[in-house]
Write a structure and sequence with these properties.
This is AAA_28 domain-containing protein. The protein is built from ten helices and 16 strands. By secondary structure, the chain is an alpha+beta fold. The chain has two domains: about 200 residues, Rossmann fold (3-Layer(aba) Sandwich); about 160 residues, Hypothetical Protein Pfu-838710-001, CATH 2.40.320.10.
């Protein structure tokens, strides 16, 4: 895990409720419908933003409160980020809520006005500011029997409103390239373990058998035409451009990714190495625009540049990313649409969470025919030695067939991904033909698609 040593700061946002157990705090004293400790008073300072917001809504301008709260949040976070950056040790900075959460509590019109007036940009403050987002689904959604207000000084809304606010808070982060949703499908202890597991996977920390590996990446082939935008829940669209780079070592893969909205971009350099100690290692580094342009000079002419539109959305508390391949590209990519998510479900339970408004043809998890590395190759697959079955160098039997066929053979791998900026990174990874081959191998730790 040498790559871990290169990282200094990892910025994690925890959003949503923390679980299903009832709190043990004393019952709150309410005053005018607001918890007493949050009533605005010069002698009573609270750090609870939720209660402050409830209080200020009764006595002041919610818009100005949110604006000043965000300014304060940015300054506080920057202070800790800078302390982490200058530390001589690796740092994990956990943010209880993040910048985008505020958008769940004001109208879209006010939010857009706030972004314009402060020259704030969602790509920078959502995608580039934080390495990872984990949304803990409220007990009001799936564990209603554990949801209560009488023992929570910061909770006053009923189940229906809590469920609505929880969805809005999760939706605020749609589009972040590494966004995990932890639902209430397990008991509280396992819910926390799943959250810790998500962080460990992203950090590249070997958790051994201390936590059970519950989820894997699954990929599906989607048939067009695309349904209208109105058929989708709230979504975010991104333009994504991938360049593969020349590599000196055998079976090492390097690529650049440019991802953005409305002319604002983030830049990621990814190196994927062969198996080391039973795991494939991915090292991701956030780049400046200048560094990105400099590294483009190393582009590998054996690969097409990949252009995609990525649509991110939530369905049934499940986060999906759908890649729509665009021209120019190899003819094998024409009309290609791939849907990906991370889940521990299998069989009918997996089928039931998939978006009903999409025409899903089949699952293609683990099939190298659908890896971006192979899809980008300029040469015909039957006439190239560059086709990648696996980074592990094993003798893999995989009968290549055109995209859209029913090839199901692939190699199972245990993959750990890491990120190596000294500051915030918003990254995810692509498969390169070494995804999970079968449902029986659900224990593997795989990177998300880039």
């Amino acid at each position: 895990m040498d790559a871990i040593e290169e990282r200094k700061v990892y910025r994690l946002v925890l959003t949503g409720d923390r679980g299903k157990k009832k709190a043990t705090a004393a019952a709150p004293v309410f005053k005018d419908g607001v918890p007493e400790h949050s009533v605005i008073d010069i002698d009573k300072i609270t750090t609870c933003a939720r209660c402050m917001e409830a209080a200020v809504g009764k006595v002041g301008d919610v818009y100005k409160f949110q604006e000043n709260l965000l300014r304060t949040m940015i300054q506080i976070e920057n202070t800790y980020f800078e302390l982490g950056r200058t530390s001589n040790k690796n740092c994990l900075i956990i943010c209880d809520r993040g910048f985008m959460d505020a958008s769940a509590y004001i109208s879209k019109e006010k939010w857009d006005r706030m972004m314009r007036s402060n020259n704030w940009n969602p790509v920078e403050l959502r995608d580039n500011r934080y390495n990872q987002i984990i949304h803990m689904v409220s007990a009001a959604n799936g564990a209603e029997e554990f949801y209560a207000t009488e023992e929570h000084s910061c909770r006053s809304e009923g189940v229906t409103l809590a469920r609505e606010l929880d969805y809005k808070a999760a939706s605020a982060w749609i589009g972040h390239p590494y966004f995990d949703v932890i639902d209430n499908s397990t008991d509280f202890e396992n819910k926390v373990n799943r959250m810790i597991e998500c962080v460990c996977q992203k950090l590249g920390i070997d958790i051994g058998d201390r936590l059970s590996i519950t989820s894997r990446k699954v990929k599906f082939l989607v048939s067009g035409p695309m349904p209208p935008d109105s058929a989708f829940p709230a979504f975010q669209d991104f333009e994504v451009v991938h360049h593969y780079l020349q590599c000196a070592g055998p079976r090492v893969q390097a690529r650049l990714r440019k991802r953005g909205q409305n002319g604002r971009w983030s830049y990621i350099h990814t190196i994927r190495r062969p198996q080391q100690h039973g795991q494939s290692i991915e090292v991701r580094t956030q780049l400046s625009h200048r560094d990105y342009l400099n590294m483009l000079t190393q582009q590998d002419d054996a690969h097409f540049t990949i252009f995609k539109k990525r649509r991110c959305f939530l369905v049934n508390n499940q986060y999906f990313q759908m890649d729509i391949y665009k021209e120019p590209s190899h003819p094998r990519c024409k009309g290609l649409i791939l849907l990906e998510t991370y889940t521990s479900l299998t069989g009918d339970r997996l089928k039931n969470i998939l978006p009903k408004f999409l025409n899903i043809v089949k699952e293609v998890t683990g099939q190298p025919d659908y890896s971006m590395f192979n899809l980008s190759l300029r040469e015909d697959w039957n006439n190239t030695k560059k086709f990648c079955y696996s980074l592990h160098g094993k003798n893999v039997c995989c009968h290549r067939s055109p995209v859209g066929s029913t090839n199901t053979s692939a190699t199972t791998t245990n993959t750990t991904s890491t990120t190596t900026p000294a500051i915030a990174t918003a990254t995810a990874t692509t498969d390169t033909g070494v995804d999970k081959a079968t449902e029986e191998a659900a224990g593997a730790n795989l990177p998300r698609s880039e």
